[in-house]
Structures are given as C-alpha cells and as structure tokens.
Amino acid sequence: MTVQANQEAPATWALEIEGLKKRYGSGFEALKGIDLRVREGDFFALLGPNGAGKSTTLGIVCSLVNKSAGKVRVFGHDIDTDLAGAKLNLGVVPQEFNFNQFEKVFDIVTTQAGYYGIPLRKARASAERYLRKLGLWDKKDTPARMLSGGMKRRLMIARALVHEPRLLILDEPTAGVDIELRRSMWAFLEEMNRNGTTIILTTHYLEEAEALCRNIAIIDHGEILRHTSKKELLTQLHVETFILDTDQSLATAPVLEGFETRLDGEGAVEVDVEKSQGLNGVFAQLDQQGIRVLSMRTKSNRLEELFLRMVEDNARQGEVTP
Amino acid sequence: MTASAILTAFLTIVVREIRRFTRIWPQTLLPPAVTMTLYFIIFGNLIGSRIGSMGGFDYMSFIVPGLIMMSVITSTYANVVSSFFSMKFQRSIEELLVSPTPNWTILAGYVVGGMARGLGIGLIVTLLSLAFTRLQIHNLPMMVLTVFLTSALFALGGFINAMLATKFDDISIVPTFVLTPLTYLGGVFYSIELLPEFWQGVSMINPILYMVNAFRYGILGVSDVNPYVALGMILVFIVILSVVSLRMLQRGKGIRH
Ligand SMILES: Nc1ncnc2c1ncn2[C@@H]1O[C@H](COP(=O)(O)OP(=O)(O)OP(=O)(O)O)[C@@H](O)[C@H]1O
Ligand SMILES: [Mg+2]
C-alpha cells in the first residue's frame, strides 16, 4: 500500500542522476551522459549486458568511482556538496567480494556499523538482527574466507543493511547463487521493500527483474536506452511464442492460418501469437485438426526477448553511425 | 556526522587495527621481542662488556634506548603499510570509502592503530631490557613525547607508502632499503663522536639520528644533538606528512577509479 502511495505522489526521489559521464583513466568513456530517477519506495532494476556501465554508475553513486561530469543526489543530498548525507542514506552490495577475508562474519558487520558512527551496543544488536534474517547467525564466528559463495553474498547484504539505509543498492546480488537461495533472497528483498526500503539492483537474470521490479532502465554502451515501468515495457512486446504439448507425435508442424508454427526439438508445437490475435484461433484450428493440447507454456522470458532486441537494435545503429 | 559519531568511527578503526595485529601476534609481536632479546644478549652482554663505555655509560645502557626506538619505528611503519595496503589489495577499504567517515578520521585511525602496535612493542622491549640492565629516567616528558611523536611520524610514512604501493613488493622496499640503513646508521649502536668529522656531518642529515638521540636524552641525559631541536623537527615532519597523506586520500589515487 505504501508502494501505491509512493507511485502516485513521490514526495522525494531516492536517487536522481543527471548528465552523468565517466571517462576512466585509460581514456575509455564508460558513461556518456546518463539520466536516471528512482522514486522513494521503488524496486528498480538497471539492466544491461556485460560492460554496459552498470557497476560504473552504481560506483559513482556510492563514491567508489569519481565521476567526470554530472549530478548525483541521494534523497536530495548532492554528492558534491553533502557527500556524508548521501552516504548515510545508502547501503551498497558490490558486485565483487570486498570484505577482509580473514575477519569474522560478526566483526565485519559490526565494524561496518561503527564506520557509520553507530555505537558498539547498537551495532552489535543490528548486526545480529540482519545476520539472523539472512541465515548467517550460526556462522558469526567464522572467518569470511570459509563461507560459501552464497553466504558471502548474504554477508555483504547484512553489512549493507546494518546502518538501516533508506536506499539499498545491489550490484548483481544473486550472481552465483543457487535457485533455492535466490528465491529466498528475493523474498527477503521484497520484504525489505515492503517495509519501505528503496531498492535498486542490477542483474543479468531478466527473470529476476521481471519478478521483483516495478521500474526498469536498460543501459548499453554507457547510454540509457529505456527508462520506464516494467508493465509498459511488457506491453510493447507484440509477439509472444507459446509452446504446446499435444497428444500426438507430429512429423510436421500443423498449419494454422494466420499463425507461424514450427516443431521444437522434442516434438512440441511452437506458435507465434501477436498481441492483437489472442489464442482462441490457435485452439479452434487445432481442434478442427483433431489435435488435443495437453499443456501450454510461454517460450523464454519475455523481458529477455525485448532486451535482446533492444541491445541488437542499438548495436546496429552503432554500425550505421559509428 | 556528529562529533560522537566520528569518535565512534575513529575508535572502530583503531580497535580493528589492534584486533588485526593481536590476531597475528606470531608475525607482529613475537619477532621483535626475539630479535631484541638477541641484541641485548649479543651486543649488550657478550660484546658490550669488551667495548667499555659509550657516551659515558656502559654499552648495554647506551644501546637500550636506541634499540627501543628501532623497534618502535619498524613496527609502527610495518603495521600501517601492511594493514592499509592489504585493505587496498582486498578492496575492503571500500567499506570505509562508502561510509561517511571523514578522510582525516580514517587517517587518524590508521595512525593511532599503528602507534598502538609500535608503542606496544616499545613497551615489550623495554620490559625485556630490564632483565639486562637498570633503566633510569632522566627526563620523562622528553622520553614519552619523543617516542609518541616518532611513532606517529612513521605511521604516516607507512600510510603514504601504502597509498603509493601497487604490489606487495612495494611495501618492503622502503623498510629494507631506507629505514633499516638509516636506523643502523642513526646512532643506535654508537655515538657519532666516534666518527671522523666528515661522517659526523653526513650523519646529521639522517632524521632518525635526531629521534634516537632525543629519546636517549630522555633516558640517559646524553645526546649528540639538541633534543629540543629534534622534537621540533619531528613535529614539522608530522605536519608535512599529514598534509600529504590527506591530499592523497582525497584524490583517492589507487583506491577510487
Ligand atoms: N577501472 C577501469 N578502468 C578502465 N575501464 C574500466 C574500468 N572499470 C570498468 N571499465 C570499463 O567500463 C565499461 C563499463 O564497465 P562496468 O563495470 O560499469 O560494466 P557493467 O555494466 O557493470 O558490466 P558487468 O555486467 O560485466 O558487471 C567496461 O567497458 C569496462 O571495461
Ligand atoms: Mg558490473
């Protein structure tokens, strides 16, 4: 419910980025002037292929990367004039593990709280709360290097939350995490979001963005290609492919008028359906041909298709105007 | 951040540093204790008895202040350079960089953390020396001030070294090729009165000579240089290195892209 309220009347922007540019020391221009705005309470995904500039963008927001030009504000705190104010509102889960491998889990999290000026007793209580929530409490005295990859990821999430930031930024939080754990991390993030924390994440799993996020920006070659709601993005998908399992072992794909069909590797029928067409025509025609549909699913992830198409278009444009 | 939040952040860094060097005590606390005990036995007892007196004191009494300073300098420098460089190397420095802790607090935390080890070692070595000689104290404030300021100065040196270092080799170059020779030639083992005039002059440009002598003055009351000049000089260096360190942190070369 807070979510809807926030969408209608955004009192504040959790994150505002204007004309952000980054040229690395090597001379490479990783960001070519991007604009991005994230509402308070949002669950926002920054999508893009490898090297698109996602980590660079987030790195600038949390001041691990120096920007070349542009403005960044976190809950209204400009990082040029009130960096400490911006940092206090921000929790970061970086893409790469960046804790001291020899320190113990509990020490890592309480120390981080100390860096935010939280007194020891409160720091310990907060560390315990988040380590418990993330299922790491029984590992509290284990040196970080002895954790599994998924545990290290969760350790970084606990560390990012220990000072209770209003904006949580996660750079590929579920990379290298198994499906079960990924689901439980999703549930955890959704709960955080419901309780009011604004979340921005980057991910390669488009399924993740589709499952979690309300708003999405697509970035490629240092430029924002799209900045919109997930809903709107999805309605732009005109054609969806459905896979139908039938009661017959077909040698050739059934011919359906008005629809493109083919057989997939396992003998199921693939049908391309345009948004305006609807599915009734498909079933009616199959019925006429005496083919019974046993089950149906959509092929691949819809966002994924859209995403690939966009990135391809962008690459093609790049070829024309180099 | 409020003043009390900054104090918390500062103490967090210091405690973290102390936890680090006590966790790896066989690498950090034990070696200087062993080395210095050997120095006391060999130079002080075995050879020292044949050397006779130096600067008006028996040789053992003469070298103890120098050896204490030597271990303080080496340990302080080593602590800051290796701790900060490994933070940089493992990128766990990012934990601090994303936090609102001001740069000067980060610097102060590392400096005091390094001093904790350096002065801790100094204390251990002093206690060990009591097994070999009687320590008198000529000028306590001078002694304490010298050892504290010297330790702070070399903590800053270690910090700058760590900021500049890009690989592990870079953190041992200065200790091996600069600090060790300067210390050995800095009047730890002899009074520069023994040297020909030319080498006395050369020795006078060695900053460690001043620190060792000021400290020895605090304990024995003898010095090759004016101890107050030495103190002033250390202070000036501390100011210069602090400014340099802070500027390096602000620019973030090697820690921010
Ligand atoms: N320190 C650096 N020096 C020079 N170039 C860099 C540096 N860091 C990143 N880059 C370049 O900037 C571009 C963007 O990198 P960035 O890490 O932001 O991409 P990303 O979108 O996070 O990719 P991924 O999905 O692989 O994590 C890449 O081409 C990368 O090679
Ligand atoms: Mg990245």
From TrEMBL, chain A:
<protein>
    <submittedName>
        <fullName>ABC-2 type transport system ATP-binding protein</fullName>
    </submittedName>
</protein>
<dbReference type="InterPro" id="IPR017871">
    <property type="entry name" value="ABC_transporter-like_CS"/>
</dbReference>
<dbReference type="Pfam" id="PF00005">
    <property type="entry name" value="ABC_tran"/>
</dbReference>
<dbReference type="InterPro" id="IPR003593">
    <property type="entry name" value="AAA+_ATPase"/>
</dbReference>
<feature type="domain" description="ABC transporter">
    <location>
        <begin position="15"/>
        <end position="246"/>
    </location>
</feature>
<keyword id="KW-0067">ATP-binding</keyword>
<keyword id="KW-0547">Nucleotide-binding</keyword>
<dbReference type="GO" id="GO:0005524">
    <property type="term" value="F:ATP binding"/>
</dbReference>
<keyword id="KW-0813">Transport</keyword>
<dbReference type="InterPro" id="IPR027417">
    <property type="entry name" value="P-loop_NTPase"/>
</dbReference>
<dbReference type="GO" id="GO:0016887">
    <property type="term" value="F:ATP hydrolysis activity"/>
</dbReference>
<dbReference type="InterPro" id="IPR003439">
    <property type="entry name" value="ABC_transporter-like_ATP-bd"/>
</dbReference>
<dbReference type="InterPro" id="IPR050763">
    <property type="entry name" value="ABC_transporter_ATP-binding"/>
</dbReference>
From TrEMBL, chain B:
<feature type="transmembrane region" description="Helical">
    <location>
        <begin position="228"/>
        <end position="249"/>
    </location>
</feature>
<feature type="transmembrane region" description="Helical">
    <location>
        <begin position="107"/>
        <end position="132"/>
    </location>
</feature>
<feature type="transmembrane region" description="Helical">
    <location>
        <begin position="59"/>
        <end position="87"/>
    </location>
</feature>
<dbReference type="GO" id="GO:0140359">
    <property type="term" value="F:ABC-type transporter activity"/>
</dbReference>
<feature type="transmembrane region" description="Helical">
    <location>
        <begin position="171"/>
        <end position="192"/>
    </location>
</feature>
<feature type="domain" description="ABC transmembrane type-2">
    <location>
        <begin position="23"/>
        <end position="252"/>
    </location>
</feature>
<feature type="transmembrane region" description="Helical">
    <location>
        <begin position="144"/>
        <end position="165"/>
    </location>
</feature>
<keyword id="KW-1133">Transmembrane helix</keyword>
<feature type="transmembrane region" description="Helical">
    <location>
        <begin position="30"/>
        <end position="47"/>
    </location>
</feature>
<keyword id="KW-1003">Cell membrane</keyword>
<dbReference type="GO" id="GO:0043190">
    <property type="term" value="C:ATP-binding cassette (ABC) transporter complex"/>
</dbReference>
<comment type="similarity">
    <text>Belongs to the ABC-2 integral membrane protein family.</text>
</comment>
<dbReference type="InterPro" id="IPR047817">
    <property type="entry name" value="ABC2_TM_bact-type"/>
</dbReference>
<dbReference type="InterPro" id="IPR052522">
    <property type="entry name" value="ABC-2_transport_permease"/>
</dbReference>
<keyword id="KW-0812">Transmembrane</keyword>
<protein>
    <recommendedName>
        <fullName>Transport permease protein</fullName>
    </recommendedName>
</protein>
<keyword id="KW-0813">Transport</keyword>
<keyword id="KW-0472">Membrane</keyword>
<dbReference type="InterPro" id="IPR000412">
    <property type="entry name" value="ABC_2_transport"/>
</dbReference>
<dbReference type="Pfam" id="PF01061">
    <property type="entry name" value="ABC2_membrane"/>
</dbReference>
<dbReference type="InterPro" id="IPR013525">
    <property type="entry name" value="ABC2_TM"/>
</dbReference>
